């Protein structure tokens, strides 16, 4: 089996590659990633010399490069993680979100059609459903919940989902889509809530909490997301959407306080700052369908996952310190000289 993973130098894509290599040592994994600010080749460095792993630096928006790669590799399955993924950046500069998240998805799916694919999997997000009110804890996102986006990021992801559905219906492309809640774990770029708070707290820097910190997210340990995608690409029904979520709703402020406690840092570091524009109030995913059809349930409890994550950031300071200093941006040039990449 030859699996093409896009965005594999990012947070979830890299965790997925590690999961797949461990579980299916005979599979060939080909990663295409353009190494934007969010991609870090240091994460994949231990894999670069493996016989059945290949890294290609290219953008999914580059049709010639994507076609060339499909021509060479003829992947059986493509899993599309590549995206601009940070809501705050989408509010500052929407255009790259539309280019990568929508046009990049189109270019990938066109290549899948042209060269033939057994499965195209679109990694989407619960943010396409918009948000839920805090005073209705009985409400959850199901696969039937209508799309109602808030940010340019979520609108771009919804656009990609709609396009994937259209490619299934119009061309019969064997598509599946998953919509997951907030992930946390190793290798997450320190601009997202949990790693940013860990990195700032370790440096005794302020911990910026938007608004009153009462927004709720449904946190899932990244490995559980990877297991779910593995189940979907091997056994999920073509044309279907699967929600993935941990039934683990928490207020932002409570997460930040847990991190302070675990790191023995004072809560006086918490700084309430201006709210995010259009800030979604609550996300809560109903994962009943993937449980019923594929037997998936989250395996990692939040108490364990958050400790494991904090420990990882403590034991891998060089990984995030290179990001903070900007040094990680030079890694591709250095590694491509040292070893043969591509
Ligand atoms: P990330 O920002 O950590 O990683 C994105 C990766 O994609 C980076 O390696 C980047 O270099 C690469 N990339 C960006 N533009 C590219 C392009 N044009 N061509 C090739 N590669 C490109 O993101 P993440 O948090 O790992 O999210 C991965 C996917 O999962 C995204 O599609 C995101 O929408 C989705 N998702 C994320 C979460 C979450 O909590 N992080 C939850 C649900 C869904
Ligand atoms: O729900 C899935 C989504 O989760 C993914 O699709 C996105 O790619 C991913 O980034 C994440 O989006 P969020 O906007 O929920 O994640 P973020 O870590 O940016 O913020 C989590 C919450 O914390 C949100 O309510 C905003 C708040 N926040 C965030 C940051 C970075 C703060 O209060 N302070 C901060 O500095």
3D architecture notes:
- By secondary structure, the chain is α/β, with parallel strands linked by helices.
- It has one domain (2-189, 218-250, 280-303): 3-Layer(aba) Sandwich (Rossmann fold).
- The chain is built from 13 helices and 13 strands.
- The chain has helices at 11-23, 41-44, 63-73, 87-92, 95-115, 152-171, 193-202, 222-235, 252-262, 288-294, 302-315, 317-325, 331-338, and strands at residues 2-6, 28-33, 53-57, 77-80, 119-125, 175-180, 183-184, 207-210, 216-218, 220-221, 241-244, 249-251, 270-273.
- The strands form 4 sheets. It has a 7-stranded parallel beta sheet, sandwiched between helices. A two-stranded parallel sheet has the order 7-10. Strands 8-13 form a two-stranded parallel sheet.
- α3 (63-73) packs parallel to α5.
- The site of nicotinamide-adenine-dinucleotide has 31 residues, from α1, β2, α5 and β5.
CATH superfamily: NAD(P)-binding Rossmann-like Domain
CATH class: Alpha Beta
- Which geometry do the CA atoms define? globular
- From the alpha carbons, calculate the radius of gyration and give it in angstroms: 19 Å
The major β-sheet equals:
7 strands, parallel
Average predicted local confidence, pLDDT: 97
Strand order of the largest sheet: 3-2-1-4-5-6-11
This entry's quaternary arrangement is single chain
Strands, total number:
13
Domain module count: 1
Low-pLDDT runs: none
Structural class: alpha/beta
Distance between the termini: 19 Å
Helix segment tally: 13
What percent of residues adopt helix (DSSP H or I)?
Answer: 40-55%
Order of SSEs = EHEHEHEHHEHEEHEEEHEEHEHHHH
Q: In CATH terms, what is the architecture?
A: 3-Layer(aba) Sandwich
CATH topology: Rossmann fold
Give the percentage of residues in beta strands: 15-25%
């Amino acid at each position: 089996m030859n699996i093409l993973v896009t965005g594999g130098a990012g947070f979830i894509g890299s965790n997925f590659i590690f999961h797949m290599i461990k579980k299916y040592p005979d599979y060939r994994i080909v990663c295409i990633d353009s190494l934007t600010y969010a991609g870090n080749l240091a994460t994949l460095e231990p894999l670069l010399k493996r016989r059945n792993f290949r890294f290609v630096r290219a953008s999914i928006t580059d049709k010639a490069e994507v076609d060339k790669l499909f021509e060479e590799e003829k992947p059986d399955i493509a899993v599309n993680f590549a995206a601009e993924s940070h809501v705050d950046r989408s509010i500052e500069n929407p255009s790259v979100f539309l280019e990568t998240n929508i046009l990049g998805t189109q270019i990938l799916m066109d290549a899948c059609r042209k060269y033939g694919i057994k499965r195209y999997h679109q990694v989407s997000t619960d943010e396409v459903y918009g948000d839920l009110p805090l005073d209705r804890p009985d409400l959850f996102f199901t696969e039937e919940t209508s799309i109602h986006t808030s940010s340019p990021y979520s609108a771009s992801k919804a656009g990609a989902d709609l396009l994937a559905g259209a490619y299934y219906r119009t061309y019969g492309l064997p598509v599946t889509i998953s919509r997951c809640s907030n992930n946390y774990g190793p290798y997450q770029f320190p601009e997202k809530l949990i790693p940013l708070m860990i990195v700032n707290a370790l440096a005794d820097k302020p911990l910026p909490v938007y608004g009153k910190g009462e927004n709720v997210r449904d946190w899932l340990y990244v490995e559980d997301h990877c297991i779910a995608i593995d189940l979907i690409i091997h056994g999920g029904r073509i044309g279907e959407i699967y929600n993935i979520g941990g039934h683990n709703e928490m207020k932002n402020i409570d997460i930040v306080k847990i991190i302070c406690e675990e790191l023995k840092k004072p809560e006086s570091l918490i700084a309430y700052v201006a709210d995010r524009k259009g800030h979604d109030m609550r996300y809560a995913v109903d994962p009943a369908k993937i449980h019923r059809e594929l037997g998936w349930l989250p395996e990692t409890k939040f108490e364990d996952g958050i400790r494991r994550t904090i420990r990882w950031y403590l034991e891998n300071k060089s990984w995030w310190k290179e990001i903070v200093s900007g040094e990680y941006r030079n890694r591709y040039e250095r590694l491509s000289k040292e070893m043969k990449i591509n």
